[in-house]
Amino acid sequence: MEAIPIERQNSIGFVIRGLSNLLRRKMMEMAPPPPEDRQTPTEAEGQIIDFLCDHLDLDLYQRDVERVFCIRRSTACRFLQNLERDGLLVRRSVPQDARLKKLVPTAKALAIHAEIESKTRMIEALMTRDLTREEIGQFLSIARKIQRNLRQ
């Protein structure tokens, strides 16, 4: 196997992909196995449910999911349809605009969210171990700038 040039190993994209793979693997290790009778949301669908459950005080719509997760309308639509089909989400009409559908997680979604929440805190603690608040702030600031650049 040919060695990867050092420049590639020090590229931002290479490091982000590696971090993403490690994070995904760690999450899979720590996620509780679902009961056999329960439909399990995909990773992305689980993140959407977590987002909705974390913001129950807000009226959230498909456009909010698209913006927060940097996904296209068709992708968000597919994820939301799957969550609705699996009984994890309901879409409720709002009086001010019949076209808008408020996204509301179900009791089933809230239960799944509670299971995952403690694992998420443990993973976050693991990732930020030995980092100062300043370093975490710098990382987040840089990551958000990279997101903005990629959206252009």
Write a concise keyword list for the protein shown above.
64% helix; 10% strand; mainly alpha; 152 residues
Q: What does the model show?
A:
By secondary structure, the protein is mainly alpha-helical. The chain is built from seven helices and two strands, in the order αααααββαα. The chain has helices spanning 6-9, 12-30, 43-54, 62-69, 73-85, 107-128, 133-151, and strands at 89-94, 97-105. It has a two-stranded antiparallel sheet with strand order 1-2. Helix 3 (43-54) packs across helix 5 (73-85) and helix 3 crosses helix 6 (107-128). The longest helix is centred in the C-terminal third of the chain and has 22 residues, at 107-128. The radius of gyration is 18 Å and the shape is globular. The model has no long low-confidence stretch (mean pLDDT 88).
**Given the structure, what is the number of helices?**
7
Helix percentage range? 55-70%
- Tertiary shape: globular
Distance between the termini: 36 Å
What would you call the structural class? mainly alpha
Low-confidence stretches: none
Beta percentage is 5-15%
Please, what is the average pLDDT?
A: 88
Using only C-alpha atoms, the radius of gyration works out to 18 Å
Major β-sheet strand ordering: 1-2
Record field, number of beta strands = 2
N to C succession of SSEs: HHHHHEEHH
| Largest beta-sheet details | 2 strands, antiparallel
What is shown here, in short?
This protein has seven helices and two strands. It has helices at residues 6-9, 12-30, 43-54, 62-69, 73-85, 107-128, 133-151; strands spanning 89-94, 97-105.
